[in-house]
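ok new one. same drill as before - structure tokens go in, u give me an amino acid for every spot. 328 of them this time. try not to just spam alanines like last time pls lmao
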């Protein structure tokens, strides 16, 4: 099959003879139609995060059509359009048994310790291939996985319509948090230094933050950088919930007295829990005016995927790779 393989940092190349996937009895084979790009893909592409092997297939925000089902699969069919939940929890460890599958001790992470999805075909455990309506466009489906993250973050924060709310950072995840809040009847205020990203957030319905000392009951920090973290804490009102979505391995300074005295709740938000969050997101996409494809700003064919990855950090909005035609 054809695949896009990472052969070294900052170098992705198309291979025509990559081995076809070998599905297990509980797997399905999906012919890939599209893959969204996100920060974890870029960290592997940049060489900041080490893949399981080289060469390596990256990409995890994928969708496609089932072309083969394993002999033990009874609830998926050839021809179904699916989105892939790319974190394969074991369902056996203590965290999975508690329903906190994001903490699974044996989690298979597509594109990191499991082969990614930037290929013609991918073998996927059937329970992690979610059927979706035929009328949903590929552009919507490549946004499904990160939308599941955003939906879970908003839901777990406990925010309700009428509450004051700030989103720090308007990268892809910040934009999807904005869309999730707007669909819930909440108009978020957005703090973002990059003009293009801020303009996109405002075009979706968010309001730009001003320079006042306004405080918020709910704050969503999506940038993952120290200035954003401190902005989030400064903007939090007494007893506020601060959801931390962005990640960084560098240590940040923090005054615990300030957090304690204001009785802030810091809520770490890591991906999603299976099966609740993907199921909730599929329902929300059918019931609410979300249209996450509105954040897409860059589409690339397989031949231009290397360029797309190199440019993705600088483009306001989200980038994706269209895998429907490998000859383009």
């Amino acid at each position: 099959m054809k695949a896009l393989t990472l052969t070294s940092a900052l170098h992705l190349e198309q291979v025509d003879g990559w081995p076809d996937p070998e599905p297990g009895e509980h797997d399905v084979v999906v012919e890939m139609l599209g893959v969204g790009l996100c920060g974890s893909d870029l960290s592997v592409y940049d060489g900041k995060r080490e893949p399981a092997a080289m060469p390596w297939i990256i990409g995890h925000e994928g969708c496609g059509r089932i072309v083969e089902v394993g002999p033990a699969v009874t609830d998926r069919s050839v021809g179904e359009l699916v989105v892939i939940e790319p974190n394969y929890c074991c369902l056996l460890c203590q965290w999975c048994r508690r329903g906190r599958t994001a903490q699974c001790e044996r989690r298979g992470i597509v594109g990191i310790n499991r082969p990614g999805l930037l290929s013609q075909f991918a073998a996927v455990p059937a329970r992690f291939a979610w059927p979706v309506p035929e009328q949903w466009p590929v552009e919507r489906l490549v946004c499904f996985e990160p939308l599941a993250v955003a939906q879970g973050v908003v839901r777990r924060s406990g925010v309700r319509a009428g509450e004051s709310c700030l989103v720090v950072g308007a990268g892809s995840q910040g934009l999807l948090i904005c869309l999730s809040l707007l669909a819930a009847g909440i108009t978020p205020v957005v703090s973002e230094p990059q003009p293009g990203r801020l303009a996109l957030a405002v075009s979706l319905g968010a309001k730009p933050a001003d320079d006042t000392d306004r405080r918020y009951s709910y704050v969503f920090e999506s940038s993952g950088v120290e200035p954003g973290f401190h902005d989030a804490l400064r903007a939090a009102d007494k007893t506020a919930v601060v959801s931390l979505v962005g990640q960084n391995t560098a240590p940040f300074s923090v005054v615990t007295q300030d957090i304690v005295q204001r009785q802030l709740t810091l809520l770490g938000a890591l991906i999603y829990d299976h099966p609740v969050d993907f199921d909730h997101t599929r329902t929300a996409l059918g019931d609410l005016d979300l249209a996450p494809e509105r954040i897409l700003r860059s589409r690339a064919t397989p031949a231009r995927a290397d360029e797309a990855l190199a440019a993705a950090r600088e483009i306001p909005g989200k980038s994706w790779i269209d895998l429907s035609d490998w000859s383009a």
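The radius of gyration is 20 Å. and btw Residues 3-131+291-322 form a domain with the Quinone Oxidoreductase; Chain A, domain 1 fold (CATH 3.90.180.10).
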